[in-house]
Every structure is written in structure tokens, then in C-alpha cells.
Design a protein that fits this description.
CATH superfamily: Aldolase class I
Low-confidence stretches: none
CATH topology: TIM Barrel
Structural class: alpha/beta
CATH architecture: Alpha-Beta Barrel
CATH class: Alpha Beta
Order of helices and strands: EEHEHEHEEHEHEHEH
Oligomer: single chain
Strand order of the largest sheet: 3-1-2-4-5-6-7-8-9
Binding site for Mg(2+): 40
Number of domains: 1
Function: Catalyzes the complex heterocyclic radical-mediated conversion of 6-carboxy-5,6,7,8-tetrahydropterin (CPH4) to 7-carboxy-7-deazaguanine (CDG), a step common to the biosynthetic pathways of all 7-deazapurine-containing compounds.
Binding site for substrate: 12-14, 27, 92
Largest sheet: 9 strands, mixed
Radius of gyration: 17 Å
Domain Radical SAM core: 18-219
Helix content: 25-40%
Number of helices: 7
Shape: globular
Mean pLDDT: 95
Keywords: 4Fe-4S, Iron, Iron-sulfur, Lyase, Magnesium, Metal-binding, Queuosine biosynthesis, S-adenosyl-L-methionine
Strand content: 15-25%
Length: 219
């Protein structure tokens, strides 16, 4: 099984439930959602002209639109070769759930890693029962009911107060079915959005996600 990978790197998770957790990020190429405020637009398309070799990928030190097909064995080999210490894997994108992640996650868990998927919820989720699913719904693409019910946390991006009505619709579908952590995240560090998130989190007893990595200037 091969996956189109844009980059792999070790850092600190800056968002949601696992904020502050040392993590290895596996960023997949390809996304049909296309949020206008997306900060990884370079992952949207798998263009053949941007495909590079596995060797070039593992030596890549900047985030850009180049990508490479990598099999599971080489993903594990690269993690070991880099001597990364983190035991938490974040599979992100792009939209990682356009691919069947169950094969990759199975082998990662067998090696002792915990796994987290960051997804818009617009695609079916193929993962292990132990996989932590972070659902980040987008206003223009309503998530699948199966994704809502599978989510361990909902990390909702907020630009204006009206956005919260959209979240209410999602939470109504989740109501009484399972516990789920709710995070509000201001889009692009906008101060008005931040104030809305803080006020709502206090009222609803939800949690704030502020994309810590952007504030402390890490990847």
C-alpha cells in the first residue's frame, strides 16, 4: 500500500485535544474540500509534475507542493532513520481520509505508536478502533453522519458568530449518542474570532484551540 505524502516531520501538536504533545506528522497530498482560508493549499492537488522521489521527499526541508508515493515499509524506515522520539502520529493533509488509512495505522500501532487523524469528515474514515479522530467541519462541506459519530473531538473553525449555528446542527446529530470533546478555533488568529471563541467556550464549557504552533513559530 502506497500513500502520496507531502512531508513528514516531528514537532509539537499545536491544536485541539493533543496540544503540546510531541508528534510525528505525516501530511498526505490531495484534498477536495478547498477552504479559502486553508494554510496548506499546496496539498490540494496530486499533479504529476510535482511528484518527486522518496529520497528527495525525506530530505525535503520546506513545505511546498512537491510529493511522493511512499509505501508503509518506507514510512516506518524513515521514522526509525530520523531517530524521532515522539510516539504519537498525526495523519493530516490535505484531506487524509480520501485514502484507506487502516493499513498504515495498523502497522504504526503495531510499532507502539498512537495515531490521530485530522479530517473534514467529508469522506468515509477507514482506521482502527483506537485511532483518535479529530473532526474539523467546514461550512461549505457538511460532514458525513458516520464521521460525526466516529469523532473523538470536534475542532470547529470560527470566523464569525453565525458560524456557530452550523456547529449546532452537527451537535444535534451527535446528541445523546456519544461523548465528544468540543474545541473552538479562531480562523487565522483573527482577534474578533478569538473573542467569539473565548466567550462561547465559557458559556458552553467547551475548550479553546488557538493553533499554538503559529504563536510560537514552529512547524
Amino acid at each position: 500500500m502506497r500513500y502520496p505524502i507531502n512531508e513528514m516531520f516531528q514537532t509539537i501538536q499545536g491544536e485541539g485535544y493533543y496540544t503540546g504533545m510531541p508528534s510525528i506528522f505525516i501530511r498526505l497530498q490531495g484534498c477536495p474540500v478547498h477552504c479559502h482560508w486553508c494554510d496548506t493549499k499546496y496539498t490540494w492537488n496530486c499533479i504529476n509534475d510535482n511528484q518527486i522521489s522518496y529520497k528527495a521527499l525525506i530530505n525535503k526541508n520546506i513545505s511546498n507542493k512537491t510529493w511522493s508515493y511512499v509505501n508503509i515499509k518506507n514510512i516506518l524506515v524513515n521514522i526509525k532513520k530520523q531517530k524521532w522520539q515522539a510516539k504519537h502520529i498525526v495523519i493530516t493533509g490535505g484531506e487524509p481520509c480520501i485514502y484507506n488509512l487502516s493499513f498504515l495505522i495498523k502497522d504504526l500501532e503495531h510499532q507502539g505508536f498512537t495515531c490521530q487523524i485530522e479530517t473534514s469528515g467529508t469522506q468515509l474514515i477507514y482506521a482502527s478502533p483506537k485511532t483518535w479522530v479529530t473532526l474539523s467541519p467546514k461550512l461549505h462541506k457538511f460532514p458525513l453522519l458516520s464521521s460525526i459519530l466516529r469523532a473523538n473531538e470536534i475542532k470547529f473553525p470560527v470566523s464569525k458568530k453565525q458560524d456557530l449555528f452550523y456547529l449546532d446542527k452537527i451537535l444535534f446529530m451527535l446528541k445523546h449518542r456519544k461523548p465528544c470533546h468540543i474545541f473552538l478555533q479562531p480562523i487565522s488568529q483573527k482577534i474578533d474570532a478569538l473573542n467569539i471563541c473565548i466567550e462561547t467556550c465559557i458559556i458552553k464549557n467547551w475548550r479553546l484551540s488557538i493553533q499554538m504552533h503559529k504563536y510560537i513559530s514552529i512547524k
